[in-house]
Write a structure and sequence with these properties.
Structural class: little secondary structure
Number of helices: 1
Largest sheet: 2 strands, antiparallel
Strand order of the largest sheet: 1-2
């Protein structure tokens, strides 16, 4: 597949051992599948509307 533009390398660096340490505190139950059911696409919600488990983006 030919892309219309080259990839750009962003100037970010990550502490991989620290990320592994932080992610390891979560269990499999904390991860949720994509709301549209995309296979292999799971996440841990970082934001919430009204403190509830939802997929909303609007609220206080």
């Amino acid at each position: 597949m030919k892309l219309p533009h080259e990839f750009y390398q962003l100037p970010y660096r990550f502490d991989v051992p620290k990320l592994i340490e932080e992610i390891s505190q979560f269990t499999e139950d904390d991860w949720v599948t994509h709301h549209e059911g995309f296979q292999g696409n799971s996440a841990i919600p970082l934001i919430s509307v009204n403190g509830e488990f939802n997929n909303d983006f609007k609220g206080q």
